[in-house]
Amino acid sequence: MQIDDMILVSCDDHVIEPRDMFDRHVPARWRDEAPKSVLDPDGIERWYFQGVASGSGSLNAVIGWPKDEWGFDPSTFAEMRPGAYDVDERVRDMNRNGVLASMCFPSFAGFSARFFHEAADKDLALIMLKAYNDWHIDEWCAAYPGRFIPIALGPVWDPAALAAEVRRVAAKGCRAMTMPELPHIQGLPSYHDTEYWGPFFDACCDTGVVMCLHIGQGFAAINTAPLAPIDNMIIISNQVSALSAQDLLWGPAFHQWPQLKAAWSEGGIGWTISYLDRCDRHYKNQRWLGHDFGDKLPSDIFREHALVCFVSDPNALKVREEIGIDVIAWECDYPHSDSVWPDGPEALHGELERAHCSDEHIDKITWENTCRFFGWDPFGVIPREAASVGALRAVSPDVDTAIRSKHEWRAMYEAAGAVHRG
To answer: How much is the pLDDT for 420?
Structure first.
């Protein structure tokens, strides 16, 4: 398959939420209490809600910067590439990268809605969380039909409200909810507790909503050595995906809810082959522990429930059939530091070619598996002939891909009079 003929659907990208996101979605009586993006006197831009500040963009929005400027230093909208927070510019950047559709995980709210979970007034937090979901589904995603796969936040602190929100967003066409990888790290019951999580699992199975488990919330499970560099957390963070999978596969979730679906994001796919091999051997070797997977192996059950995603995993692609060709999906990760933009098609095609992937396998990995898993029709709005890498790049040939320092981005932002953008 030629690069221009590929169809790319990214099941993991991110949005830096614009400052005005709550304006049209919070009922008037609570509008003054909605989260607000504030530029502190020291130049740090954060969201504030009930007197508590979120983190900053930092590594979440370094696309377009020189790599030697990357870091955990806070950033502002003025220093970001506009595609991070402006949906019009995002779609142009997607076109330049040949990406047909994108699932955009939250930023300031956290992958597990932790920003709202830790708020003191949970009733108000629920109002704002719903407003967030309405903005994401009805404004960000709806701005360009066919280009975004909606994903919602869940009020994980209230099982009944969580199940209700699954059903509410599903009725709006959303088939994904971002959830904590390891909820006990967040002070919640683990996924082994079916009394707590059962209503959520029921709602997901009833509606086809996928629980999305993005690396990040579970970082606290990595007990790095004293004086260890940050590299430890970044490199071995994929092992949190294995910890999360263990709780679902060896706990009651995948057994009692056979229709439950889970997608692991940004952890790569390489961890799955060694994890599943170990699961199968353990099951056959340690039968005295009493686990019963019926006439199937644990790896079979995992593949019935799972989607695993990668940005770059060249050697794991060589054992794609052992992992399960129907459970592998690609992600771009724009605008994070791991992102493959603007030359994602070239990077991905190279890995697929070196792994000797057939055209059939390429289509499964680049779009079919994701679209099937999330019930997303990629050609419902955009015809297939207009959805390829080559066709999309032809739509936006003038996208500027220059690498600039954050200071240069700021100068451009200010020169454009974009003080209120974002």
So the answer is: 43
Total tally of structural domains belonging to the chain: 1
Question: How do residues 200-211 score in pLDDT, each as one tens digit?
Answer: 999 999 999 999
Is 32 domain-assigned? yes
**422 within some domain:** no
| Cβ–Cβ under 8 Å, residues 54 and 115 | yes
d(CA 206, CA 253): 15
Full-model pTM: 0.96
Kindly state whether residue 421 falls inside one of the protein's structural domains. no
420 assigned to some structural domain:
no
3-class SS string, the chain: CCHHHCCEEEEEEECCCCCCCCCCCCCHHHHHHCCEEEECCCCCEEEEECCEECCCCHHHHCCCCCHHHCCCCCCCHHHCCHHHCCHHHHHHHHHHCCEEEEEEECCCCCCCCHHHHCCCCHHHHHHHHHHHHHHHHHHHHCCCCCCECCCEECCCCCHHHHHHHHHHHHHCCCCEEECCCCHHHHCCCCCCCHHHHHHHHHHHHHHCCEEEEECCHHHHHCCCCCCCCCHHHHHHCHHHHHHHHHHHHCCCHHHHCCCCCEEEECCCCHHHHHHHHHHHHHHHHCHHHCCCCCCCCHHHHHHHHEEEEECCCCCHHHHHHHHCHHHEEECCCCCCCCCCCCCHHHHHHHHHHHCCCCHHHHHHHHHHHHHHHCCCCCCCCCCHHHCCHHHHHHHCCCCCCCCCCHHHHHHHHHHCCCCCCC
pLDDT tops 60 at residue 74: no
Q: What is the pLDDT confidence band of residue 39, given thresholds at 50, 70 and 90?
A: confident
Q: Distance between CA atoms of 397 and 145, rounded to whole angstroms?
A: 21
pLDDT digit string, tens, across residues 22-34:
999 999 999 999 9
CATH of residue 262's domain is: 3.20.20.140
Domain encompassing residue 47: 3-415
Nearest to 13 by CA among 112, 111, 96, 80: 111
Query: Per-residue confidence at 418, pLDDT binned at 50, 70, 90?
Result: low
pLDDT of residue 287: 83
